[in-house]
Design a protein that fits this description.
The chain is built from twelve helices and 15 strands. It is of the alpha/beta class and 409 residues long. The chain is globular and about 60 Å long.
Length: 409
């Protein structure tokens, strides 16, 4: 039986450089990081991050329900609203039983849990919030989106660390393929810029040490890269079977052509240095899409700016795509949005397919000598892109790759 094509018909984003898809796209193309000192991190070894600013989240969410939502939930709901509107859909007129919600996160409400623990320790039980549990559990983004959208189909909250966003999109695609739903609202969200988490990343050695301007510290694939800079945000997409989307008059932004996932089974935090298991995820995505390696016009890399991670990925890219397609790494601008990173980067890959523009890697003049990859630097590169892949690799050895193509291919 022929598998139906799955289309992305709506896209919503909120990131450190924009509160919408369009403003995020503008910010990423500009290639300048907004990383700055964060007052709430005063005294931490890492006191800087890329944060979502310039928006009153409670006001943007509106209504009386915002009090029960953690920051990560508000991000997801705002992005979902934009995605559904972008798809030209109205929840008042759909069959909610045929709408699924799949929203991943890595740390979920760990910030909320920490706040409640501090309140309990310092001031006792009466100081904690009656909504304390709702501020912490990782299924709340999917749940609140389902409530807001009257989506009574399956609701899931995948967690595969930094691969959670791509995992969510892959699961949603499978549900549509199997006929479990007709519309899927899928993506990921994260808000992890708080002292306990930032201290943990610093102690683990993964975070870039303070060394001058925070906006210059994340430099994927550079010879002098030193570690990650944290980010936050969300990206949510509306997925539908392409034939049905077109039948209702929708214009798909892109098609999900394939997906692949593997697990290194090597170390809790470090990628396998040979990169062969991550390479297997790339190969699985290409196989699923029915592509040859040389069909890939562009790679959106995981590119965290860590010494080992970037070296492993650069070697993987060189072997997997010997024709050297142009590579970008959005974390140079956005920081590492953790569980949301894969969904945000898949969204940016879709925008590259649409506009034929590959954003530059921030803070990179040239890749480390010996990296056989064609990094886009300095300014955006205008080039036709019909097929592209986006990599996501997470703690626990979680590898997820998604293959995306222009609708007309």
């Amino acid at each position: 039986m022929k598998r139906p094509a799955i289309a992305v018909t709506g896209l919503g984003m909120i990131t450190p450089v924009g509160h919408t898809t369009d403003t995020t796209w503008d910010g990423v193309r500009a290639g300048v990081s907004p990383a700055r000192t964060v007052p709430e991190l005063r005294g931490c070894a890492v006191d800087f991050a890329c944060t979502v600013s310039g928006i009153d989240l409670d006001e943007a969410v509106g209504g009386r329900s915002a009090f029960r939502m953690g920051r990560y939930v508000k991000f997801a709901l705002l992005a979902a609203r934009e995605a559904v509107a972008d798809a030209g859909l109205d929840p008042a007129h759909w069959d909610g039983a045929r709408v699924a919600v799949v929203v991943g996160t890595s740390s979920g409400g760990s910030a909320g849990l920490t706040e409640q623990a501090v309140a309990l320790e310092r001031r006792g039980p009466e100081a904690t919030s009656p909504s304390g549990i709702l501020l912490t559990i990782p299924n709340m983004p999917a749940a609140e989106i389902a409530i807001a959208m009257k989506a009574t189909g399956p609701s899931l909250a995948p967690c595969t660390a930094c691969s959670s966003g791509v995992t969510a999109l892959s699961v949603a695609r499978d549900m549509l393929t199997l006929g479990r739903c007709d519309i899927a609202i899928a993506g990921a969200t994260e808000s992890i810029v708080f002292p306990v988490a930032m201290t943990g990343f610093a102690r683990s050695g993964a975070a870039a040490p303070r060394d001058g301007d925070p906006a210059r510290l994340c430099r994927p694939f550079a010879a002098d890269r030193t570690g990650i800079v944290m980010g936050e945000g969300a990206a949510i997409m509306v997925l539908e079977r392409a034939e049905e989307a077109r039948a209702r008059g929708a214009s798909p932004r892109a098609l999900i052509a394939g997906a692949g996932a593997t697990t290194d089974a090597h170390h809790p935090t470090s990628p396998h240095p040979a990169g062969e298991v991550a390479r297997a995820a790339v190969d699985a995505a290409l196989r699923d899409a029915g592509w040859r390696a040389e069909d890939v016009d562009h790679v959106n890399a995981h590119g965290t700016s860590t010494p080992q991670g970037d070296a492993t990925e650069a070697a993987l890219i060189g072997r997997a795509y010997p024709h050297r397609p142009p590579v970008t790494a959005p974390k140079g601008v956005l920081g590492h949005c953790m569980g949301a990173a894969g969904a945000i980067e898949a969204g940016l890959t879709i925008l590259t397919l649409q506009h034929g523009v590959i954003p530059p890697i921030a803070n990179l003049d040239a890749p480390e000598p010996g990296f056989a990859i064609d990094c886009v630097t300095k300014t955006p590169r205008r080039v036709p892109v019909r097929r592209a892949v986006s990599h996501s690799f997470g703690f626990g050895g979680q590898n997820a790759v998604i293959a995306l193509q222009a609708p007309q291919v």
